[in-house]
C-alpha cells in the first residue's frame, strides 16, 4: 500500500519546509508559518479531489463522503503548530497520517461506510498561548471569550489579535455552536521512550494524563556576597530550590511506590537575570513545575505534598519565601475503549499486537473525548523525546499504523 | 571632627549621582560612568589643594606631602566601579574615607610624617572583566599583555579597547615598572552581616580569602517530554543540578566541621533558554560555582570533593554529563599584622576594640599585599549584604574609622 508511505513522506516534507530552524522547526500557534502549513494540507486535500474548508478559528477540514450519511462520521487529524525548535513529527505525523488514510481510501476506489473527515486543528501547543486545545475546543463550540484575551508568550499580544492577523473571526469562533458528536482518531508520536525500548511500532492510548502546573513560581531569598556571607544565616534561593527538587522527587517516589501514576518536572529554572552573578548568593529564582497523572486525586495529593515541602523549606531557612504563583490544571481524560477495540482487531489481523498505554502529554483527542465524542489515539514509536529537533520516527511505523486504520475502516471495525 | 563626616557625605553623594539606576548603581569597569566618578574625586583633590594625576591604566592619585620624604608613603584608597545594580558603598566608601582623611589632615593644618597618597583604582569588580585587580595590578607594574585581551561581559570587547576609549594607553600600562613598595590601607564595607549582628562599627582585616571559580559550568542531560518520559531513564539536568548543590553543601558542612574556612556558592543558574519549557525535561543547564577559603589546601580539597560529587552523579544517572568549564583561581592573601596593630592602638585610644576578621571578598589591598606591600584593611559595618542596591552603611561608622586612621597617622601609629 505504497500510497500511504509516499503520502506520509510527501506531507511531512512539504509541511516541514515551513518554519525550519537551523535545528528543528518553529511554527507558533496562529503564526504565518502555521497558516502556511495548513495551506499545504488544503492543497493536499484538493489533490485528492476534496474541498477543504476552514472554520472561524482556522481549523481545516476536508471530508470524503461515506456510503451512509447517517452513520457517525470518523474525524482523523492532529495539529501543525510546533514548540520553538520542535521536531518534525509532533502533530505533523498525525496530519500526514490523515492525508495518507484519505489517499489510500481514494486509491482503493471504494466508498467508506461513513464520512471520513481530515481535520487539522489550530494552536495545540500551549507553550504559545497558556490555555489548552484552542483549535479543537473552537471546533467543538467550547472556546470561551476569556480564551481570546490570553496572550502569546513571544509577542505579548492576545489570541484574538493573532486570529484576526490570520484573517479569522474570533467572535464567530466563540459563538460557534457545538457540532453533533462524531468519532475522533488521532495518531501521534509517543512522547517518551516506551515503544522504542520495547521495539514496538505503535500502541493504543487508554487516556490522557491531566496536569497541575505552576508556570510562574518563584523563590525569594536574601542577596548576599558569596565570600562575605557565613553559611548560617544565608537565605540562598538556589539552595532552597535544590531542596525543593529533592523534596518533590522524594514525594514522587512515594507516590510511585504505592502504584499510582505521577510525573514531576521542573522544566525551567531562572537564576540568570542581570542581578545574578558568580560572586553573589542568589536572592531570587524563578521556576516552572509540571505534575501529571491519570488520577485527579493523585494530583491533589502531589499538590499537598508540594505545600508540605515548601512549608518545611520556609521554616528551616528564615528569609526564604516560596511563591508558587497561579496554578493551572487539566483534568485526566480516559479514552473510551470502543474505537481502540476496533483498531486492535484490525491490528491483530495484520499481525500486530499493540499495547495499551497512557499518554503523558495532552492531545486534541482529549478535548474531543472531554466533549463526549468517542475518541481514540494511536502512539507511534519515537526516540530522542519530543518537543525537540531530534524527535525520531520511522515513517514506516506510521505507515503501518495507517494501514491498520485503513483496514479498520474498510473492514468494518471502525 | 565634622570635616570627616561632611566630606564622606559629599563624596558619596557626588559619586553616587553617577550611574544611578532605578535601584542601585551601575558603573562598569572602564565605562564613562567610572571615568566620571574618577573625575569627581580629581575635583575633590583639587579642592584640597592637591594635584591629581592618573597613570597609564587610569588609576587616580593625589598626594599630600609629608614631613619626611624618606619615610614610606601611606597609600589610602579603593575603587569606584560597581557591579550592575550594585550599592552605594562597595568601593566608594573607601574612596570617600580617603578624601575625608586628607580633608581632616588639611583642616588640622599639620604636616603628616610621611606622604599620604589617595589612590582610586580602576576595574576592581571582576564581574566585568574576568580577571582580578586590573587597576591595582597596573599600579603595581603587574598587568600583563594577556590581561589586555580579556573581554568585558556586557560588551564582548577587550580590555585594551575599553582603556583606549577612556583615553588611556594599554601598552604603557603593561610596560609600567613596579613602583617602590609603600604601605596600602583600604577601608571597605564588610560584605557580610558579622559586624552588624555583633553591633560593632568596624573591624581590622587579617587576610583576604582566595577562590576557586567555575564561571561557565554546564550539565547536559537528555531533553524529554515532561508527561511522556518515565522516571527511570530520565537524564534531567535540573535534577542533576539539585543533586550537585546538595552534594557540595554536604562537602561544605564536612569542611566546616573540621574547623576549616570555606564558602560555597552557586550564584547563577540558567535553565531558562529558548529550548527550556514547562513541559520539557531539561536537557541542559548552565551554572557558576564560587568556592572561597583562607587556605589553598582547603580549596584544593573542596575541588576534589566537587570532582567526586560530579563523578557520582554522572555514574548514577546515565545520560548526565557535567562539564565544569575552565577554572580560575585566586590565592588567599594574609595581610601582615603591622599596620593593623598600629590602627588597633589608635582605635583603643579612641575607645574602640575592633575585632580581627577575614575578608570573604577580594579587594585591592590583596593585590598590594601580594606585591609585598605592607597592607591593611578596615571593614565597616554594613547590612543587607553587598553587590546589591540595598547595601546599608551608617556614614557615622565610616567617619569613626577615618578618625582612627587620622589619629594613627598624626600620633605616629602608622
TrEMBL record, chains A, B:
Cited InterPro entries: Amidase_Cbmase (IPR010158), Bact_exopeptidase_dim_dom (IPR036264), Peptidase_M20 (IPR002933)
Write down the superkingdom of origin: Bacteria
Q: What's an example of a GO molecular-function annotation for this chain? A: hydrolase activity, acting on carbon-nitrogen (but not peptide) bonds, in linear amidines
Q: Which cofactor does it need?
A: Mn(2+); Zn(2+)
Q: How is the cofactor bound?
A: Binds 2 Zn(2+) ions per subunit.
Report keywords, A-Z: Hydrolase, Manganese, Metal-binding, Zinc
- Could you say which protein family the record assigns here? Belongs to the peptidase M20 family.
* Subunit record text: Homodimer.
This protein is called N-carbamoyl-L-amino-acid hydrolase
Originating organism = Tranquillimonas rosea
Amino acid at each position: 500500500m505504497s500510497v500511504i508511505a509516499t503520502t506520509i513522506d510527501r506531507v511531512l516534507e512539504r509541511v516541514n519546509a515551513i518554519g525550519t530552524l537551523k535545528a528543528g522547526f518553529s511554527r507558533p500557534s496562529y503564526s504565518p508559518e502555521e497558516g502556511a502549513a495548513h495551506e499545504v494540507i488544503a492543497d493536499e486535500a484538493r489533490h485528492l479531489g476534496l474541498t477543504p474548508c476552514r472554520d472561524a478559528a482556522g481549523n481545516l477540514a476536508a471530508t470524503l463522503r461515506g456510503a451512509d450519511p447517517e452513520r457517525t462520521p470518523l474525524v482523523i487529524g492532529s495539529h501543525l503548530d510546533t514548540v520553538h525548535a520542535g521536531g518534525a513529527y509532533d502533530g505533523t505525523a498525525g496530519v500526514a497520517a490523515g492525508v495518507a488514510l484519505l489517499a489510500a481510501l481514494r486509491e482503493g476506489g471504494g466508498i467508506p461506510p461513513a464520512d471520513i473527515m481530515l481535520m487539522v486543528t489550530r494552536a495545540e501547543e500551549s507553550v504559545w498561548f497558556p490555555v489548552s486545545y484552542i483549535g479543537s475546543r473552537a471546533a467543538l463550540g467550547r472556546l470561551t471569550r476569556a480564551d481570546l484575551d490570553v496572550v502569546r508568550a513571544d509577542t505579548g499580544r492576545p489570541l484574538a489579535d493573532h486570529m484576526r492577523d490570520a484573517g479569522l473571526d474570533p467572535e464567530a469562533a466563540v459563538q460557534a455552536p457545538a457540532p453533533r458528536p462524531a468519532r475522533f482518531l488521532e495518531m501521534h508520536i509517543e512522547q517518551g521512550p516506551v515503544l522504542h525500548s520495547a521495539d514496538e511500532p505503535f500502541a493504543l492510548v487508554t487516556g490522557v494524563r491531566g496536569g497541575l502546573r505552576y508556570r510562574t513560581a518563584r523563590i525569594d531569598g536574601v542577596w548576599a556576597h558569596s565570600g562575605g556571607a557565613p553559611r548560617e544565616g544565608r537565605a540562598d534561593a538556589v539552595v532552597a530550590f535544590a531542596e525543593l527538587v529533592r523534596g518533590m522527587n522524594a514525594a514522587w517516589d512515594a507516590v510511585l511506590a504505592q502504584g499510582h501514576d505521577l510525573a514531576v518536572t521542573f522544566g525551567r529554572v531562572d537564576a540568570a537575570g542581570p542581578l545574578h552573578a558568580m560572586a553573589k548568593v542568589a536572592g531570587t529564582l524563578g521556576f516552572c513545575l509540571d505534575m501529571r497523572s491519570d488520577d485527579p486525586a493523585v494530583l491533589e495529593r502531589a499538590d499537598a505534598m508540594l505545600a508540605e515541602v515548601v512549608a518545611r523549606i520556609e521554616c528551616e531557612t528564615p528569609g526564604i519565601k516560596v511563591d508558587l504563583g497561579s496554578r493551572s490544571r487539566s483534568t485526566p481524560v480516559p479514552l473510551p475503549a470502543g474505537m481502540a477495540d476496533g483498531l486492535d482487531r484490525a491490528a491483530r489481523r495484520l499481525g500486530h499486537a499493540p499495547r495499551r498505554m497512557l499518554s503523558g502529554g495532552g492531545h486534541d483527542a482529549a478535548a474531543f473525548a472531554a466533549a463526549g465524542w468517542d475518541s481514540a489515539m494511536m502512539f507511534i514509536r519515537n526516540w530522542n523525546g519530543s518537543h525537540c529537533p531530534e524527535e525520531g520516527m520511522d515513517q514506516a511505523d506510521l505507515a503501518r499504523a495507517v494501514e491498520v486504520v485503513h483496514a479498520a475502516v474498510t473492514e468494518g471495525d471502525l
